[in-house]
Amino acid sequence: MKTLPDLYNQEQLAFCQSLPKVELHAHLNGSVRASTLRELAAEKQIDPELCKLIEKGDRTLAECFGIFTLIHQVTTSISAIQRITREVLEDCAADNIIFAELRTTPKSRPEHGLTKQTYVEAVLAGIDAFSEQNSGMEVGLLLSIDRRESAEEAMHTVTLAQQYHSRGVSGLDLSGNPTLGSWTTWRPALDAARASGLHISLHAGEVYRPAETSQMLEWRPDRLGHMCCLDEQLRSSLLASHIPLELCLSSNVITESVAGYPDHHFRQLYHAGHPVVLCTDDSSVFSTTLSREYALAMAAFLLDRREMLMLAKKSIDYSFAESHIKQRLHTAFDRAAAKIQHSSAS
Ligand code: 6MZ
């Protein structure tokens, strides 16, 4: 594995672990526990070499999409999908996350008896199973459109999001290999989603595609993800837009969308007062946790404890949760933050 020096010290990591946090950009199948992947692969008699590849840790952006294909070969049954959803949420709760907004791509896999609808129901059942056992963490769900999908497939996903809106699906995400497809394919589906009151987050600028990134900015999604590869004009349009941006430090550095932690565009955007939120992207694929992402930011951008608290608190407002849930989260956050401040002072 490519050795990425951990920039932070144990004290910074412990502080970030103690922070109440909000996760707004976590792909379900990229966050599956390695031990669960191994177990599911063994049940399906899938070559253990595949699991080794998944665990390798060092990968280009193109290789990541090969890894997702491998993971998707393992997470094919309703019970596996329920299980990984519950476990990913348990891992979020263990990392002191108070609100987890997961995202996942509904999949039609007739060879495994899976439809997009039964996929979504399995994820919701996993969320319910988690919530029955855990009361401390709120959960949200976005349905992803994969850039490999056609206009019709994208519209089907939007219809499912509308159907399951009352069960906690708050919006849509556009993701997948950023070198594939074209924005005009999914735009009508995203227009329909927005018209029906769903929130939208777009992966944008993960690779340099200035024309597409500019069209996405003009469309004004509720949030953007990544925005790593921009020219000067796009950078100023992003700043002028004030659209909250999900930033995934390890993911961007490991896939070389960004040269290194100190060079990450977090620095410039944060200091310009742009709304940013730290996220994991694919905690399993990039061997990280949200606390670790916070610790990396704290160390790389020389942020103090008060700044980290504010960063975490503000991310509540960028979530797609309903306002009464945001209020609850702010109350829970303030209570936990007061304890942290009290213990640092004593
Ligand atoms: C773009 C990504 C991604 O939906 O099967 N995904 N899309 N850029 C990234 N940066 C590394 N990481 C993950 O989770 C896996 C899917 O999420 C998207 C890809 O479409 C991937 O197949 P789900 O739960």
TrEMBL record:
Keywords: Hydrolase, Metal-binding, Nucleotide metabolism, Zinc. One of its GO terms (molecular function) is adenosine deaminase activity. It comes from the Eukaryota. SUPFAM superfamilies: Metallo-dependent hydrolases. One of its GO terms (biological process) is inosine biosynthetic process. The keyword Zinc applies. The keyword Transmembrane does not apply. It catalyses: N(6)-methyl-AMP + H2O + H(+) = IMP + methylamine. Its cofactor is Zn(2+). Residues 20-331 form the Adenosine deaminase domain. Transmembrane segments: none annotated. PANTHER family: ADENOSINE DEAMINASE, ADENOSINE DEAMINASE-LIKE PROTEIN. Belongs to the metallo-dependent hydrolases superfamily. Adenosine and AMP deaminases family. This is Adenosine deaminase domain-containing protein. It comes from Apatococcus lobatus.
